[in-house]
Structures are given as structure tokens and as C-alpha cells.
């Protein structure tokens, strides 16, 4: 490819199976010449297929629950030992909502589940950066990226409490990014990715409709997991050294759309049908 990450060392969180965005990032980072450690929660190591990825990319897997400081300290110490020095790039690709899993409506959450989801999906990013910062583990001009979704800014009713978690995650990227930039010359950004068919993505209610809608709304169509990996690689590379504290939309243009002709055509078909038949019951918006 382009050798964009030649000689760089990294830590990649969140590859569960071959559909995971982190999996694609690992494959692309390997192609671009990086060496890295893969990590995931111990339970995910048992349920997923990360060892296959480790074999393909010649990497070591070090388990870490991203809600445990002890696990993260162990991970970062071992990663620096295995890789032989400080870290150039880190991918946080972690998300999970217990309320979504259990089918609890946004208006009626179990707040213990809410806390767990926030801890795993959002606070974990602060925790990861806090350990990297304290251990002075990042190399100057290194890059830290987390994945997010546009429900942090706009309403997507079925995204549930993950919307709030993503808003928090993006804020942490800016706030911690300031200190990482000022003190360590390290950049911190979030990538706001199109809906993507992965284990986490498919957990969202009505996901198929959601992905089809975004596809029709975006002038370039939805961004795939592989395309997200390409974009992530560019942020890990030396070509984006002064990009920091940003939430970067990677969504085929969706985030700046109001309406597309494809969506309008579909709407008009329904509208015309509705107006030629007897109204039955108005659906809820
Ligand atoms: N799929 C989408 O539509 C989409 C869109 C935008 C953003 N994202 C974000 O991309 C990221 C990756 O998700 P994905 O779509 O690849 O799904 P995925 O299910 O493959 O990845 C989520 C990962 O989080 C890991 N994880 C859960 N709890 C953890 C813990 N306690 N410690 C460490 N790791 C833990 C899981 O094991 C899994 O590997 C998430 O932040 C997600 O919110 C996904």
C-alpha cells in the first residue's frame, strides 16, 4: 500500500470478529507497516475470533476490560514491552448499552444499566487516556482516535442511551485532547462513522431500516467499515499531525443533509398512497 504507518507502534481496542470496525483497522494498519497489540475484554476474547486476527497480523493479544484501571495499566506496560517502546497510535473502538440489549426504552431506563453502558462506552476513553498520560506512554506526534456516532448531536430515537454516551465520549476527546496536545504533542480525535453492520451496530432497534435510510440520504452513500479503517489510518499517519480536538464526520455527507431526492421520492409515494386510501391510523413519529 503506502507504508503510511511504517515503524509505528499501536494499541487497537475492540476487534471482536471480522465485522468489527477495529478488525478492519488492524488489517489496514498491518498493511501499512505498523506493529500493534490487540486488546478486548476477557469475555469478548472467549466469544469472538480475535486470535485469527492476531495470527493474520502477527500481533499479540493482551486482555483488558476497559472499565478496569488495573487491566489498562497492565495492558499499556505489556504493550510497550512487546512493541519495544512508546506508542504512536491508539484506537478506542468500544461501545455497549445494556439498556439497548435489554430492550429498555430511552424514557424508562434502568439507571444501573445506564451507568454500566456509560462506563464501558464513554468513561473508558478517559480511563485509557489517563493511563497513557500518567505512564507517558505516547510518543510525540502520536494519535489517539475513538469511534462515535452522530446521535451525539441529533436525535435518533432508537439509539437510546448510547446517544448520551457518545456525546460524553466526544467531550472527553476535546477536554483530554487539550492536555495531551499541550503536554505531550499528541492528537486526539473522534470519527463519527455511518451506521455499519457489526455486532454493536446491529443491536440498535430497526437497524436495517436505519442503514438503508442513511444510504439514500448520503450523496456518497454510507461509509463502510473498510473505508472507516482507511480514514483512521490517515489520522494515525504523519499526514494529519495538526488535526486534533475534532469530531470528524465519516458518513458520505449524511451529517450535512436535510433531505435527498431519493428519500423525498419514497416519501411522496407513501404520501400519495395515504391520500388515496381511507386514513387508518397515523403512525407515531
Ligand atoms: N456499527 C455502527 O453502526 C457504528 C457507527 C458509528 C460508531 N460505531 C462505534 O464503533 C465502535 C466499534 O463498534 P463496532 O460497530 O465495530 O462493533 P463491535 O461490536 O464489533 O465492537 C464493539 C467492541 O467493544 C468491545 N467491548 C465491550 N465492552 C468492553 C469492555 N468492557 N472492555 C473492552 N472492550 C469492550 C466489544 O468486545 C467489541 O469488540 C463503537 O464505539 C461503536 O459505537 C459503530
What does this structure look like?
- The protein has 11 helices and 7 strands.
- With 285 residues, it is α/β, with parallel strands linked by helices.
- It has a 7-stranded parallel beta sheet, with helices on both faces.
- α1 runs parallel beside α3, α1 (21-31) crosses α10 and α6 (111-134) packs parallel to α7 (162-184).
- The termini are far apart.
- The structure holds nicotinamide-adenine-dinucleotide.
- Nicotinamide-adenine-dinucleotide is lined by residues 13-14, 16, 20-22, 40-41, 44, 65-67, 93-96, 120, 147-149, 193, 195-196, 198-201.
- Nicotinamide-adenine-dinucleotide binds at residues 13-14, 16, 20-22, 40-41, 44, 65-67, 93-96, 120, 147-149, 193, 195-196, 198-201.
Amino acid at each position: 500500500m503506502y507504508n503510511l504507518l511504517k515503524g509505528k507502534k499501536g494499541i487497537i481496542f475492540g476487534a471482536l470478529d471480522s465485522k468489527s470496525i477495529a478488525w478492519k483497522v488492524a488489517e489496514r494498519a498491518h498493511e501499512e507497516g505498523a506493529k500493534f497489540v490487540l486488546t478486548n475484554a476477557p469475555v469478548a476474547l472467549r466469544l469472538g475470533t480475535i486470535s485469527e486476527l492476531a495470527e493474520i497480523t502477527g500481533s499479540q493479544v493482551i486482555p483488558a476490560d476497559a472499565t478496569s484501571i488495573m487491566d489498562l495499566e497492565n495492558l499499556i506496560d505489556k504493550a510497550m514491552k512487546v512493541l519495544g517502546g512508546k506508542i504512536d497510535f491508539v484506537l478506542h473502538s468500544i461501545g455497549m448499552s445494556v439498556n439497548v440489549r435489554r430492550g429498555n426504552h430511552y424514557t424508562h431506563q434502568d439507571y444501573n444499566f445506564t451507568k454500566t453502558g456509560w462506563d464501558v462506552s464513554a468513561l473508558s476513553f478517559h480511563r485509557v487516556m489517563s493511563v497513557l498520560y500518567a505512564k507517558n506512554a505516547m510518543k510525540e506526534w502520536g494519535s489517539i482516535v475513538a469511534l462515535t456516532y452522530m446521535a451525539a448531536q441529533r436525535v435518533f430515537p432508537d439509539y437510546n442511551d448510547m446517544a448520551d454516551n457518545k456525546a460524553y465520549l466526544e467531550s472527553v476527546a476535546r477536554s483530554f485532547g487539550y492536555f495531551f496536545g499541550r503536554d505531550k504533542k499528541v492528537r486526539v480525535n473522534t470519527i463519527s462513522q455511518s451506521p455499519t453492520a457489526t455486532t454493536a451496530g446491529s443491536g440498535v432497534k430497526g437497524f436495517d431500516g436505519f442503514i438503508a435510510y442513511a444510504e439514500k440520504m448520503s450523496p456518497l452513500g454510507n461509509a463502510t467499515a473498510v473505508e472507516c479503517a482507511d480514514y483512521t489510518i490517515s489520522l494515525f499517519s504523519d499526514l494529519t499531525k495538526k488535526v486534533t480536538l475534532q469530531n470528524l464526520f465519516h458518513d458520505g455527507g449524511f451529517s450535512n443533509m436535510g433531505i435527498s431526492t431519493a428519500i423525498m421520492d419514497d416519501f411522496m409515494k407513501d404520501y400519495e398512497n395515504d391520500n388515496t386510501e381511507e386514513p387508518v391510523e397515523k403512525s407515531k413519529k
